[in-house]
Amino acid sequence: LKTEKVKHLRQTIVDTQEFIRSFQNEAEQKKSTYSEQDVSLQERVRAQLRAALYDIHDIFFEMSLMDRLTLLQQERELRAERKLRDLKAKSTKERLSLSAMFFEVQKSLKKNGSVHCLVGLDDPTPNVKVPRIAQGLINPKINKNEKFVMLCSQIKCLPL
């Protein structure tokens, strides 16, 4: 099982073992005794290590096949949700990027006295009517910058 839960437990085991080793090596180098706080910390870290080891054991040796399959299904659902969330975030980020590019090119066109304008997916330009034929002008295989240049050169915005 390569679920997030198992990966997290494995990382916890590695980290706690490493911490315990470094803690002991440090104490040996200083040749000092452990304070009550040090002993308490070591006990808590060892308890955390034991709990992670028991959890791993339970997953692989105690859990029924049905429970393991349920765990795998939950993992798949979490991955799908995470992927969807990432795609939405990426889409929002791209829209913001396109919007910023839109304003820059629009500003440049206004400076040059051009009557053309850009129309993006979420066109923030008020009082602009876009011809319906504009939808067919963009080739989806062209990158975003080329789309804006094409729109700039091919679409004339008409005041409402």
Q: Any idea what the shape is? A: flat
Distance between the termini: 61 Å
Q: What fraction of the residues are assigned to beta strands by DSSP?
A: under 5%
In round numbers, the mean pLDDT is: 75
GO biological process, one term: regulation of cytokinesis
Could you walk me through the main structural features you see in this protein, from its secondary elements to its overall organization?
With 160 residues, the chain is an all-alpha fold. The protein has two domains: 4-88; 92-159, no CATH class. It has four helices and two strands; from the N terminus they run αααβαβ. The protein has helices at 4-30, 36-62, 65-111, 144-154, and strands spanning 128-129, 158-159. A two-stranded antiparallel sheet has the order 1-2. It is flat. Residues 115-142 and 147-160 have low confidence and may be disordered.
Provide the descriptors you would attach to this structure in a database record:
2 domains; mainly alpha; single chain; two-stranded antiparallel ribbon; 160 residues; disordered C terminus
Q: Can you give me a brief rundown of this structure?
A:
InterPro entries: CCP110. 70% of the residues lie in helices and 2% in strands. The chain is mainly alpha-helical and 160 residues long.
